[in-house]
Amino acid sequence: MLVTFQSTAAPDVVMLRNLAQYLLGLIGKHLDVRGVIAHEELSHVIARLETAISEETHAEAALESLYTVTSAHRYNMDEDRGGLAHRAWPLLDMMREARKQNADIIWGL
């Protein structure tokens, strides 16, 4: 099932339900049939999501330092890996634009 995030500040962002649920959980929201991230919340929400991305990046770097990986294998791993930064980018970009324009973000199933 797909979830659509909408704001007057940016184009719609559509993602799978499980990813939307995960990202909303990171920012302290629950995935309901409909929801809103008010423009007053955006600075705090953006900071929480950026912190989660940073923590995942540091954890991945720490794990990589524990293992010796050939460059060919690393290339294949990087192609397959869709880290949080990559998956969250469209929503994070929407949040930043909405904050600039004092706009809310709504979502619906």
TrEMBL record:
<dbReference type="InterPro" id="IPR014991">
    <property type="entry name" value="DUF1840"/>
</dbReference>
<dbReference type="Pfam" id="PF08895">
    <property type="entry name" value="DUF1840"/>
</dbReference>
<protein>
    <recommendedName>
        <fullName>DUF1840 domain-containing protein</fullName>
    </recommendedName>
</protein>
